[in-house]
Amino acid sequence: MRVIVFFDLPVGTAAERKAYTRFHRSLVKGGFLMMQKSVYCKLALNPTSAQSIMNSVRDMKPPQGLIQMLTITEKQFARMEFVLGEYHTEIIDTEDRLVIL
């Protein structure tokens, strides 16, 4: 599963910029990867861990702005269509599971 976070936060004042920076850094420290500007995703192993990830995002929300979350399966994520541009990452992204014993 993937948890995708979409956000649009105000940056008009110094306090709003500080809240934006704190939220952004919290997402990155929490293991989220940037898909686009203000769109981040994180891999979740099951619905319970996805709910836990979503609760952690709720806990770090700033006082103002818009934050939305969406949970999708790996198969849905793999069917994403790129209309323009390409997906660039150094992370191996596959539905296969790797078990090292």
Brief overview, please?
With 101 residues, this protein is an alpha+beta fold. The protein contains three helices and four strands, in the order βαββαβα. The chain has a single domain (2-78), classed as 2-Layer Sandwich (Alpha-Beta Plaits).
Question: Would you kindly provide a written description of the structure presented here, covering whatever features stand out?
Answer:
With 101 residues, this protein is α+β, with helices and mostly antiparallel strands. It has one domain (2-78): Alpha-Beta Plaits. It is built from three helices and four strands; from the N terminus they run βαββαβα. It has helices at 14-29, 47-59, 74-78; strands spanning 2-8, 33-36, 39-43, 66-72. The chain has a four-stranded antiparallel β-sheet. The two termini are 24 Å apart.
Strand and helix layout:
Blueprint: E1 2-8, H1 14-29, E2 33-36, E3 39-43, H2 47-59, E4 66-72, H3 74-78
Order of helix and strand elements from N to C terminus:
EHEEHEH
Major sheet attributes? 4 strands, antiparallel
Strand content: 15-25%
Q: Give the total of beta strands.
A: 4
**Arrangement of strands in the largest sheet:** 2-3-1-4
Stretches with pLDDT under 50, minimum 5 residues:
none
Name the shape in a single word.
globular
CATH architectural arrangement: 2-Layer Sandwich
| Distance separating the two termini | 24 Å
Q: Any idea how many domains?
A: 1
Helix fraction by DSSP (H/I, runs of at least 4):
25-40%
CATH topology: Alpha-Beta Plaits
* Mean pLDDT over all positions: 88
What is the highest CATH level, the class?
Alpha Beta
